[in-house]
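Weekly puzzle thread! Below is a chain. First person to post its structure in token form gets bragging rights.
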Amino acid sequence: MLSNSNSLLMQKVSFSYFNGLVLRDIDLTVADGEMVGLIGPNGCGKTTLLKLACGVLLPVKGEISLGGINLKKLPRKQVARHVAVVPQYFNIPFAFTVAEVVLLGRTPFVSAISGETRQDHEMCALALGLAGINHLKNRYFNDLSGGERQKVILAMALAQEPRLLLLDEPTTHLDISHQVEMLELVKSLNREQGVTIIAAMHDLNLASLFFDRLILLKEGTIVADGSPREVLTESSIQDVFSASVKVSQHPVTLAPHIVVLPREVTTKNHVAS
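Winning reply:
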């Protein structure tokens, strides 16, 4: 039986696919109520770490605990009542309405005999409200824009009543306005609902603006863990991403702001010096 804790603990966790190790000796603690961003280049292990955190994958070495209990000892249905995932890609091949898609989030709670209950529908209504998409509930999911679909997927996850919410690059393929809107919504869930958040992020500036703690991955290992100011340094970005950057302060929030330098600029500067 899980406690009311949202805490996630990884101890010396390693994972490999057929082509070799993807994560190596990961030690990670995420406490209740934290909002953590995972950053790093493509293929560094961000998505794999999220899959391990929800039990979709099992480590080849090490131990993962959720609320103090080894994830291996928890049935999948029980994990799904505490951990929800917003995937990077989500397709519905059928003509489901938004309300029907969000109701899928109640699957871990629905009895095969009695079916959906009044509470299930009430939780879906609450999730639609939290995601700000009540006005879309009768629309077909496949007719929505990318930003609207992301909100529906988030609402489906919220219908699970998660204490831990995992997001895999939630701003992918969204325009600037929808990126900010999505992350503001996620942050409000963390601040107002107490949901623990772990999100894989591609955009370093958005990660800097919205997350209190960042974890920088390189080749399957954690190379930096701390506040955006501690993690997003010119030397760390150069080392991990092999890109020349200038890090300054955001003019409003004072968070680290990264400017990527074109290779021709850095080459000229190197030659001039």
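Puzzle host: Confirmed. Bonus trivia for everyone else. Residues 176-193 form the longest helix (18 residues).
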